[in-house]
Amino acid sequence: MWSSIRNILNKRKWAKWETAPKDLVIFHTFGKAANIPSASPFVLKLQTYLRMAQIPHKTDSKHQIGPKGKAPWISLNGEHMGDSELIINHLNEHFKVNLNKGFTPAQLGVATCARVALEEHCLWGIAMERFIFNPTQFPKVVGVGPLYDKILMTVGGHFVSKRSKGQGIGLHSQQEIEHLCIKDLRAVSDIIGKNDFLLGSGPCQDDCAIFGILAVTLWGQPNSPYEKLLRDDLHNLRDYCIRMRDIYFPDWEKCIRPTSSSISRGGANNTNKIKAKL
């Protein structure tokens, strides 16, 4: 019964998006975070894809939670859809987009494995660092007040603890989780090597997801072991994030919530050369 009532209420709330211009994607998302457009790697993933694929879109941060009970989600020609990966597949078909031209099936298989390792495994360790092991930093990233930060971290901590145990990684100790996640990040670092992007000198579709998670790790996880790893050791992942940011988010400062510790834009000296080749 509650599900039916919720669907009716959502349909009323979303009615305005059914009259949006034809083929304009309405990108529903959370608000800006400190030093990064979103604290959600999946929001950043889809946002990067929309820019990489040059798909016309409009951002809405008022209706944040979509048909699957999460963000991001989109409205397109009266249809509402959730889940970043399913959205990308749908937009590829609708707009005839192919960001994987020039890559072999074997290369794309490696890209998929890298994405799944980060999205389905490493991300849960990062979430536990955010909500359970080091819960004082995340409220500063999303910019909630002193009252709401306790609510956010209590509810979020309970959710992450329960879901991570169901996934499996939450059954381990903090030290074991860090070891597993660092192993994932090192593996992706080995795959990228000296490449400009995940698979070579040009981006593929899964670069959107890889950037989403690595950028959140670098700029949305203050004082975490994973941030330290990218800053002090895995320099190719740090430079990869800067390169992707500078190419696909030249307006980065307008996309973030400014703080006194805003990020320097320096770091990737060859960005302009790479832009010229894309």
TrEMBL record:
<dbReference type="Pfam" id="PF17171">
    <property type="entry name" value="GST_C_6"/>
</dbReference>
<dbReference type="InterPro" id="IPR012336">
    <property type="entry name" value="Thioredoxin-like_fold"/>
</dbReference>
<feature type="domain" description="Thioredoxin-like fold">
    <location>
        <begin position="41"/>
        <end position="132"/>
    </location>
</feature>
<dbReference type="InterPro" id="IPR036249">
    <property type="entry name" value="Thioredoxin-like_sf"/>
</dbReference>
<dbReference type="InterPro" id="IPR026928">
    <property type="entry name" value="FAX/IsoI-like"/>
</dbReference>
<dbReference type="InterPro" id="IPR050931">
    <property type="entry name" value="Mito_Protein_Transport_Metaxin"/>
</dbReference>
<comment type="similarity">
    <text>Belongs to the FAX family.</text>
</comment>
<dbReference type="GO" id="GO:0005737">
    <property type="term" value="C:cytoplasm"/>
</dbReference>
<dbReference type="InterPro" id="IPR040079">
    <property type="entry name" value="Glutathione_S-Trfase"/>
</dbReference>
<dbReference type="InterPro" id="IPR033468">
    <property type="entry name" value="Metaxin_GST"/>
</dbReference>
<feature type="domain" description="Metaxin glutathione S-transferase">
    <location>
        <begin position="182"/>
        <end position="244"/>
    </location>
</feature>
<dbReference type="InterPro" id="IPR036282">
    <property type="entry name" value="Glutathione-S-Trfase_C_sf"/>
</dbReference>
<protein>
    <submittedName>
        <fullName>Failed axon connections</fullName>
    </submittedName>
</protein>
<dbReference type="Pfam" id="PF17172">
    <property type="entry name" value="GST_N_4"/>
</dbReference>
